[in-house]
Structure formats: structure tokens, C-alpha cells
Design goal:
This protein is an alpha+beta fold. About 50% of the residues lie in helices and about 20% in strands. It has helices at about 40-65, 85-110, 120-140, 170-200, and strands at about 10, 10-15, 20, 30, 35-40, 115, 120, 145-155, 160-165, 200-205. The strands form five sheets. A two-stranded antiparallel sheet has the order 1-2. It has a two-stranded antiparallel ribbon with strand order 3-4. Mean pLDDT is about 85; it is low at about 5-30.
Length: about 200
């Protein structure tokens, strides 16, 4: 979990920067609260971003359910608890925190170098995707046989010939490349996992 203070109540994320004084629905203007520094690893930052998105979905789904209600003629009104302004404030705060954290995480990934492979985290993520695509292609090539019998084909009256498909490359070389790519992917992934869990950066939320 990230170190720092960001208000939680009953499992829900509350505003960490802006507070509305008084009761819910009080029209008084928002007043700023000092930003709180928090320490993250790349892994905990991504976990926190997912939690923010879950919270935003919860707030918006709750709004969808409560922003209108049905009332029969002559029935006493019992509207569900809902505040348009409070909901807008919650969504704006979640978006603000998400925006800052995504930006700082991106900056961290751009400058943090993995010492063994010599790539930044950002470059390593791109490299892993590229290497995985290349390995999949090489896997298809290494699975082919150097020579495959296709069958007989008539070439004249009563005369047939046997056709073969030949690999136009060294299948053994493809096998070696597949093993090398697998080892490289594993090495980068291992180093990336270690960095994601241990290297930290600070974000003012």
C-alpha cells in the first residue's frame, strides 16, 4: 500500500484535497487543503489507480440510480439520498488524483533505468511487447519441418510427380532464436517485476 494520507471511509475514497465545510449540501465554496505527499512503487500506483477507477464507477452508478425517482400521484415524496454538487465534486477529485498519479507514474517509468538490461521501465514495457510478438512468429517457424511431402500431382497422361514443401530457412536457427528470445523476455520481466515492487517515487496528492 502507498504511504501517506488519503481519506478513506467505509471502503470508499473521500476527497483528499478539497473539503466542503458544514453539512452535506451546504452551498459554501470549497476550500483547499494542503496536498499530502504519498510514496508509491509502480505496482502500488497501478493498484491505487484501479481503486480510483472502481470508486469513480461506484459514484457514477450510484448517481444513475438516485438522480431520479418515481412518485405516484398523491404519494408522499421520499427521494433517495443524492447531491448533484457533491457527486460532481467527488468525480472531479477522483479525476484530479488520477491525472496527477498517472502523470507522475509515467515520468517515473521514463527515467528509471533497469541496470541489467539498460532500459528504462517505459522502454522495457515496449520491448516486452515487441519481443513477445517476435517470439510468437519464430515459434511458428521453428515448428515447421525442413521438408514436407504434399502429395502427388499429375503432370501428363498416366504420369504423376510427388511435390514437397521445403523450408527456405534454417529451422534449427529458428529454434535457437526462440530459446534466446524466451530467455531475454524472462530476464527483462524478472528485472521489471523487481523494480515495480521495490523502486519508489513520491507524489503530492
Amino acid at each position: 500500500m502507498p504511504k501517506g494520507a488519503f481519506g478513506y471511509g467505509e471502503g470508499r475514497i473521500s476527497s483528499g484535497r478539497l473539503r466542503r465545510p458544514g453539512c452535506v449540501g451546504d452551498p459554501a465554496p470549497l476550500r483547499p487543503v494542503k496536498e499530502v505527499p504519498m510514496e508509491f512503487t509502480s505496482a502500488s500506483a497501478n493498484k491505487y489507480l484501479r481503486r480510483l477507477q472502481d470508486e469513480k464507477d461506484y459514484v457514477l452508478n450510484t448517481e444513475l440510480e438516485r438522480c431520479t425517482y418515481v412518485l405516484s400521484e398523491g404519494e408522499a415524496p421520499e427521494p433517495p439520498v443524492y447531491s448533484y454538487r457533491e457527486t460532481r465534486d467527488k468525480v472531479a477529485e477522483i479525476d484530479r488524483v488520477t491525472r496527477i498519479l498517472r502523470h507522475d507514474l509515467h515520468q517515473f517509468n521514463m527515467v528509471t533505468v533497469l541496470p541489467q538490461c539498460g532500459l528504462t521501465i517505459d522502454e522495457a514495457l515496449i520491448a516486452l511487447a515487441q519481443l513477445s510478438v517476435e517470439r510468437d512468429r519464430v515459434a511458428e517457424l521453428r515448428a515447421r519441418q525442413p521438408k514436407v511431402r504434399l502429395g502427388e500431382r499429375p503432370v501428363g497422361a498416366g504420369v504423376t510427380t510427388v511435390e514437397y514443401r521445403y523450408a527456405n530457412y534454417d529451422v534449427q536457427e529458428a529454434e535457437r532464436d526462440y530459446e534466446a528470445l524466451s530467455e531475454k523476455i524472462a530476464a527483462i520481466q524478472l528485472e521489471l517485476d523487481l523494480a515495480n515492487q521495490t523502486k519508489t517515487f513520491e507524489v503530492a496528492l
